[in-house]
Each structure stands twice: as C-alpha cells, then as structure tokens.
Design a protein that fits this description.
- The complex is a heterodimer of chains A (about 110) and B (about 110).
- Chain A contains no helices and eleven strands.
- In chain A, strands 2, 4, 5, 6, 9, 10 and 11 form a seven-stranded mixed sheet that branches. In chain A, strands 1-3-8-7 form a four-stranded antiparallel sheet, with no helix packed on it.
- Helices cover about 0% and strands about 50% of the residues of chain B.
- Chain B is globular, with a radius of gyration of 14 Å.
- Chain B starts with a strand and ends with a strand.
- In chain B, a hairpin with a 2-residue loop joins strand 6 and strand 7.
- The chains are: A mainly beta (about 110), B mainly beta (about 110).
- Chains A and B meet through strand 5, strand 9 and strand 10 of A and strand 4, strand 5 and strand 9 of B.
Chain lengths: ~110, ~110
C-alpha cells in the first residue's frame, strides 16, 4: 500500500537526550515536511525538503535537525537544545505545490 | 509565521444538522485545502481547491474557493457522530514561500447523537 509511515507511535525519552523520529513515504513525492502540534493548537512547520540533500528551516526549527539522504526518507532529530520537546510530531509529503498527505504521527514525551 | 483566520473555533451540534466553517486570509491564495484530524491521528485531506470560485463536493462535504481568493468555506450536511474531530484549513500563497502551507488553528466539531 502507498502511504506515509512514522515510527514509533509513542516515544519516551529522558530530558537531555537526543531522539530521532522516523518518516518514510512510498508515494514518490518530491517534498517532505515535519510539523509539530501541541494540545489544542494548529500545525507549526519545523523543516521541509523539496529535493534530496536539500532542506529548509520552517517557523520553529531551533532545537531540531533533519537529513534527506533518500527521496523516501526524512528523519527528524529532536536535540537536547529543544527546550520543550514534548509534543505530537507529524510528517507529511507532497508533489511540489500540491496537497500534502500526512503520516499517523509520533507522540514524544520527555520525562 | 503567518496564520489563517479560521472560524468558528468550536461547534457543538445535534446529529442531522448542517455545519459551516470558514477561513480567511489577508493575502491572495492559489490553493485552499481542508483537512480533518481525529484524536491522536494525522490530518486527512478532505477537499482540495485550486481555482477561484471553484465549488467541490466530497460526499456530504462541500467546499468553495472564494472569488476574492482570500477565503474558503467548508459545509457538512446532515452531520453524523463520526464527523466529530478537528477541521483545518490550509492554503498556498503566491510567489516566494509558496511551497509552505499556511494553516488555520482548526474548528473543533462535536456532534450530539
């Protein structure tokens, strides 16, 4: 089946540890995105990538890092520099300038 | 970052009622998208609009791309309990950062059976 997968669904980490969230798509989409969603809030863009080996900061990139070594993969690392990392993280993909399709999300809790 | 003005913020209706929500922007948009998000899940695309004045239906859902290109609305007819969730609008602007979607803050819909 074509789609976007994110793993794991739930993730717990101790404060001060880096953690990497996985996002894979088999839709052959060129662009991929990472969003953060806090309770009762909308979606805020962290990073996006339009082609392999290239990515741009979104509105809240501080404390996060990404890589785009393969077209189908766009992992997000939440670093210890992120002051409030507990949130719901959503990955999306699209053809350029077309509608975005989302994965099921990863809920990260930092203890 | 820029946000869309989405209203109402929340709605509580009786099953069978019709629902209407809208989004407005201070700038011209080339694309309007409507998503629904269930708790703990990713948003699911409901309707995509690409042309000013366009009116598109998806089952009981109808959305329109405003003629001014600065607004869009979503209507749900004859609501049912599974319509419960948060509805988001999103859009692409003009030149510049047109690969970034601009998002509304969502309309939370509750349906009383």
């Amino acid at each position: 089946d074509g789609g976007i997968t994110q793993s794991p669904k739930y993730l717990f980490r101790k404060e001060g540890q880096n953690v990497t969230l996985s996002c894979e798509q088999n839709l052959n989409h060129d662009a991929m995105y990472w969003y953060r969603q806090d309770p009762g809030q909308g979606l805020r863009l962290i990073y996006y990538s339009q082609i392999v080996n290239d990515f741009q900061k979104g509105d809240i990139a501080e404390g996060y890092s990404v890589s785009r070594e393969k077209k189908e993969s766009f992992p997000l690392t939440v670093t210890s520099a992120q002051k409030n990392p507990t949130a719901f993280y959503l990955c999306a993909s699209s053809m350029v300038r077309r509608e975005q399709f989302f994965g099921p999300g990863t809920r990260l809790t930092v203890l | 970052g820029q946000q869309l003005n989405q209203s109402p913020q929340s709605m509580f209706i009786q099953e069978g009622e019709d629902v209407s929500m809208n989004c407005t922007s201070s700038s011209i948009f080339n694309t309007w998208l409507w998503y629904k998000q269930d708790p703990g899940e990713g948003p699911v695309l409901l309707i995509a609009l690409y042309k000013a004045g366009e009116l598109t239906s998806n089952g009981r859902l109808t959305a329109q791309f405003g003629i001014t290109r600065k607004d869009s609305f979503l209507n749900i007819s004859a609501s049912i309990p599974s319509d419960v969730g948060i509805y988001f609008c999103a859009g692409h602007g003009g030149a510049g950062n047109n690969r970034k979607l601009i998002w509304g803050l969502g309309t939370s819909l509750a349906v009383n059976p």
